[in-house]
Structure formats: structure tokens, C-alpha cells
Amino acid sequence: MIKKLKVGILGATGFVGQRLITLLHNHPFFKIEVLGASERSAGKTYEEALDGKWKLDIDMPDMVRNMVVKNINEVEEISSLVDFVFCAVNMPKDDIKKIEEAYAKAETPVVSNNSAHRMTGDVPVIIPEINTQHLEIIEKQKNRLNTKRGFIVAKPNCSIQSYVPAISALMDFKPTKIVVSTYQAISGSGKTPKEWPEMNDNVIPYIGGEEEKSEQEPLKVWGHIEEDKIVIAESPVISAQCIRVPVSDGHLATVSVSFDKKPSKEDILEHWKNFKGRPQVLNLPNAPEQFLTYFEDDNRPQTRLDRDIEKGMGVTIGRLREDNIFDYKFVCLSHNTLRGAAGGAVLTAELLCAEGYITSKN
Description:
It is built from twelve helices and 14 strands. By secondary structure, the protein is of the alpha/beta class.
């Protein structure tokens, strides 16, 4: 039996932190050792710190109820107890940068759900099925940080993970232009429908910072390594609109795309069906068996019906057809707090473990 790695969760009281707890409970590779949060929560049991604000529709695991929450700023203490940490804190961007680098410099790898380091040149932004090769930059990052085992790996924004996998499967045809609109769930804000009654029967056409992330982060995912940094891709050009809609979970995207070499519809469907990456080859615990699933039914994918496909780790696609302006258009859907957030982070950690980047300190 594999010796489980000891894990810390920074930001354990938030929505993503809660998801991480449910995914790491009884995980075959990992064991929750530390729950970290702000100074306000430190010293309380986890249940006391939440004060009735457990947001998920599944029960809080009993094993974390009486764990005493630690102050995330106690970097050396937490680092002495864990092999690596997940970071899902709600803090100003500059403060997140500092604390993630502090943990890395304390020789504790960081798997980050935050945006703070996504555009740092030597920090890989990983979708495990797509750009595993970017993990090679970790050695350059460790040289910069002067560490032996500490580093930072970031997970990209949840809004891009509905459509970037579908486009990534078609890179052989050289996509040149993309227009995408994402229709994003309430949980992407860290809230539940009950906590945000203003969203009832409402659509909000603006989500701060999301459109910039949706236009920039895919280009880093599709970029390449030159010397000590990841150089972002020059194409395709992306124009994005990000809209908040009154659903609990699931980000849906409408996509129009043009290619340098226009494929046939049959070519596209074949590439989607056969697309897989290292998580599938390695049979990682949270890897979806079928990463991309296409529906022939024009009424699919639907958020409520399809967001949980492959335990929330798969991406669904539908309505592929030719476009009057672009070459093709289609619809995509992913679960934003599973594939897009906590689940994607756990799968990234599984990959880092399987590839030898994260190991036990003892």
C-alpha cells in the first residue's frame, strides 16, 4: 500500500477549501494533516470556524470536524507537518503571491487555486490532460526560489476549462480566432443560491477580471518553454464575455472558432472522442475515463443534467455546426468547482505525485 502524503489546505473554510476536503477524504494518495485559515479562524475547531456555513450538499466528513484550524501565516509550523499544500485563500493578490512563495521557500510545494501566480513566467498553469510538458519548468523555478523541493503550480481559471479542452483537442488544425461567451454558476463566486438571492431570476453581464483571464490564460496553457519561462502562444486570438447566471454549479460556454486548416465535422468528432492525456495513461484516481463527451442531441449538454459527468471531472460538448462568420460553433460545459477548481487541483497533485515532483519529506 502506498504511503499517503500529508496535505495542508490553506483557505479550508472557503467554498473551494470545503470541496478539497470532500475530495481528499479517503483519498488513496493523500491524507489531510492541516486545515489552515485566517487568524480569525485559527485555534477553533473546523466546525466552530465554519459556524454553520458548510456550503456543500454532502455532509462534512467527521474526521475534520474537530481538527483545530491553524493560522496560514504560521508557514514554518505548517510546513513542518505536511508534504505539500493546496492554496485556496481569499486574500489580496499581492498577499497571495507572498504566502505562496513563502511556503515554496519553506520547501513545501504549493498547488494553487488562486490567480496570483498564473502569469508568473516560471509557474506552470496546468490542465493535466493538456500541458503536462510545462512541469519541466519547475526546475527553473526552484533555481529562482533557491529551493530543493519547494515550488508553485497553478490551476487555471474555472471559466476556461469548459472550452479550452475542446479546442486543445483540435490543435492539429491550428485554430486562429475564437469568440467565447461563458455562462457561469453562482458557486464560481464562492456563494450558494441561498446566500445570493439577488441572482434569483436574474443574469449579471459582468464578472470582474474573468474576461481578461479567459482571454489570456489559455495562451499560457498553449504556450511553450524557452529557457527559464513559459512563453505564451501568439494564437489563437480570443475574445471573451463572461456572464453570471442563476444556476448553482456548472459553467457553460458558447464557442465560435476559425482554423488555419479547416477540419471536417467528422475530423472534429473523432479528435474529441479520442483525446486523452497523462491522467488517463497513468489511471490517476480523479482522472475521467472519457475526458471529452459529445452529445448528438441538440438539447445537450444541459447544466443540471450533465455537469456531474465522470464525477464532475469530464467536459461535455454539443451542437457542433458550421458558422456563418467562423468555421464552426459549439457548446461546452464543465463543473466549475470540480473540474474547474478543487477537482482540477487534486488531479494536478495526483499528476505531480505520479511524476515524482511531490514526494514525502520523511
